[in-house]
């Protein structure tokens, strides 16, 4: 009862329901769906007299009370009054029917307590805003900062999307240009403050050895990363933590066994044919860096020529004749060669200088007297030469370079006992200049004037450069001093810079004769036509160029 004394009301809920067999659940229905009169949902109740001795109600009064309550129940009732606004503007939303308690006679809203709660109509929903939403930016969350200090970066995903159905959660990704609004930023700076000083190591350098225990080094610096992303190098005392290692062991494996050769012994004879020997031991460098002598079977086979070779210091003197006349002799040719057009092969004799074009095959002879040709040895820049795919050391006293390349330039020496002769090879580039350029000329103006002048004027330019050649060194006041392999480079370079070769200058040069060139050499039909009036190779005696150099060096500054 709604009161503790007097007349009150008792209510109960009466619903129209149906049992759904497929789900074994109960569903509410509108009241008009149920047949028959609806049972009462409220009734009057009496809780006894208030304040003690109130007279009891007689039956007539009780009937009147119940009739009044019934009239009140029929005066107010629930009704639908429109719908709420749509929950979404696009992509599918929901509207809910508004239920109000109304006075049936005046149609004015009344307090909901005056309407029977059990008669309140069920909740009514309907769909709305079903049109697809326009393209818009979908923005993800920022990632953690890439650095804890010294300005890091945060990133996030931003993409253009199109919501088709909110109920089905159906979204389509579109191209960025289909979103009309400016694209939000996908990256931003973070943690913009200076880092504390710390150790920053560089990359490890290559190991000092390929095996047998080596050392790797690296540089470790004390730096501070600033708020703008730059680094400030500091003294090591600013870094409080222990310094990182700046070197470490590497290649801690045993090396393969190898031969260790001693120096050659002296020739076994003072004249005539003798032999030189050297000893060989098989050793292995251990991972600790120490060497150990191992069984010779663990080393690769050693050629016989690596342990013994013939030698001959001089021809033995005949009785009654001085021995000096019978010492070995090399018949050298003191000439300068300049190759002007391409040839397949050129022959030379040791003792001179050659300025050659790349890809030319060169045969260099070392003609000897009183010495056996198989005993002749060859060196390049002081290193002993042996036959290879590119260079052939023939047992008949000559050397063959199959196709010249820049690494072939240098000083070649043939030895016949105590007799030695050299031959210098320099390479010319496609611009008719030395591949290894001589040192720079004195000033761009003088160089330009020299290019415009003829060969005679070029030689005069040398004369007027304070007696100094193009590297500007007083030591080059020729004189035969200086680098013996470069003594003619400046003069040859000046001649090569000229566009033509005047007849009077050409007359001082001679064509390489048939004994010093391969007559079957084929010229390149596409060579520079401007040089077709010249021979394949220009040849001059060294003494002629020595005279020029000597005269220039004697000119007053």
UniProtKB/TrEMBL annotation:
Coarse class of the primary localization is secreted
Enumerate the Gene Ontology biological process terms: extracellular matrix organization; proteolysis
User: What is one Pfam family matched by this protein?
Assistant: TSP1_ADAMTS
| Gene3D superfamilies per UniProt | Immunoglobulins, Thrombospondin type-1 (TSP1) repeat
Output the CDD domains linked to this UniProt entry: Ig
Its subcellular locations are:
Secreted, Extracellular space, Extracellular matrix
Q: Give a yes or no for keyword Ubl conjugation in this entry.
A: no
Transmembrane ranges, per UniProt, are: none
Which molecular function GO terms apply here? metalloendopeptidase activity
Which superkingdom does the taxonomy of this entry point to? Eukaryota
Q: Where is the Ig-like domain?
A: 328-416
Q: Which UniProt keywords apply?
A: Disulfide bond, Extracellular matrix, Glycoprotein, Repeat, Secreted, Signal
Region Disordered, residue ranges: 451-488
* Protein's UniProt keywords contain Signal: yes
Q: What cellular-component terms does GO give this entry?
A: extracellular matrix
Q: Where is the composition biased (Basic and acidic residues)?
A: 474-488
Could you tell me which PROSITE patterns the record lists for this protein?
A: IG_LIKE, TSP1
Protein name, as recorded: Ig-like domain-containing protein
Taxonomic source organism: Gulo gulo (Wolverine)
């Amino acid at each position: 009862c709604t009161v503790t004394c007097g007349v009150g009301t008792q209510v109960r809920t009466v619903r129209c329901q149906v049992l759904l067999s497929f789900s074994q659940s109960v569903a509410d229905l509108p009241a008009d769906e149920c047949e028959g009169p609806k049972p009462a949902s409220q009734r009057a109740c009496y809780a006894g007299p208030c304040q003690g001795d109130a007279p009891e109600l007689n039956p007539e009064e009780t009937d009147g009370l119940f009739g009044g309550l019934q009239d009140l129940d029929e005066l107010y009732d629930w009704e639908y009054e429109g719908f709420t606004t749509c929950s979404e503007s696009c992509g599918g939303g929901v509207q809910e029917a508004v239920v109000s308690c109304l006075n049936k006679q005046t149609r004015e809203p009344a307090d909901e307590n005056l309407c029977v709660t059990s008669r309140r109509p069920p909740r009514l929903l309907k769909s709305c805003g079903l049109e697809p939403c326009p393209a818009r930016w979908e923005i993800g969350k920022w990632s953690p900062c890439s650095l804890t200090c010294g300005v890091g970066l945060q990133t996030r995903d931003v993409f253009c999307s199109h919501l088709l159905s909110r109920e089905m959660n159906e979204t389509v990704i579109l191209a960025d240009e289909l979103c009309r609004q400016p694209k939000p930023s996908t990256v931003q700076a973070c943690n913009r403050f200076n880092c504390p000083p710390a150790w920053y190591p560089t990359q490890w350098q290559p190991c000092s050895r390929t095996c047998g225990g080596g050392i790797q080094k690296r540089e470790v610096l004390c730096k501070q990363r600033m708020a703008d992303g730059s680094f400030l190098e500091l003294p090591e005392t600013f870094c409080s933590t222990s310094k990182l290692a700046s070197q470490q062991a590497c290649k801690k494996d045993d090396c393969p066994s190898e031969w260790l050769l001693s120096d050659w012994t002296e020739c076994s004879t003072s004249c005539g044919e003798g032999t030189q020997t050297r000893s060989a031991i098989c050793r292995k460098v251990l991972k600790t860096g120490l060497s150990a002598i191992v069984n010779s079977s663990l080393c690769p086979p050693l050629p016989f020529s690596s342990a013994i070779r013939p030698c001959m210091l001089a021809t033995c003197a005949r009785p009654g004749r001085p021995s000096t006349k019978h010492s070995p002799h090399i018949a050298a040719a003191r000439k300068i060669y300049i190759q002007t057009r391409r040839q397949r092969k050129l022959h030379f004799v040791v003792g001179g200088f050659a300025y050659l074009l790349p890809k030319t095959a060169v045969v260099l002879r070392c003609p000897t007297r009183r010495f056996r040709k198989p005993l002749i040895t060859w060196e390049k820049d002081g290193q002993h030469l042996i036959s290879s795919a590119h260079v052939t050391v023939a047992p008949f006293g000559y050397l063959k370079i199959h196709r010249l390349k820049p690494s072939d330039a240098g000083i070649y020496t043939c030895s016949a006992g105590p007799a030695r002769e050299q031959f210098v090879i320099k390479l010319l580039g496609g611009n008719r200049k030395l591949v290894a350029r001589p040192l720079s000329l004195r000033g761009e103006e003088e160089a330009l004037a020299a290019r415009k002048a003829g060969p005679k004027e070029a030689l005069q330019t040398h004369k007027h450069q304070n007696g100094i050649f193009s590297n500007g060194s007083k030591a080059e006041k020729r004189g035969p001093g200086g680098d013996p392999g470069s003594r003619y480079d400046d003069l040859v370079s000046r001649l090569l810079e000229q566009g033509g070769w005047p007849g009077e200058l050409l007359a001082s040069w001679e064509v390489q004769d048939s004994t010093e060139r391969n007559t079957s050499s084929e010229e390149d039909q596409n060579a520079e036509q401007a040089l077709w009036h010249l021979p394949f190779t220009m040849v001059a005696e060294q003494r002629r160029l020595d005279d020029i150099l000597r005269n220039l060096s004697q000119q007053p500054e």
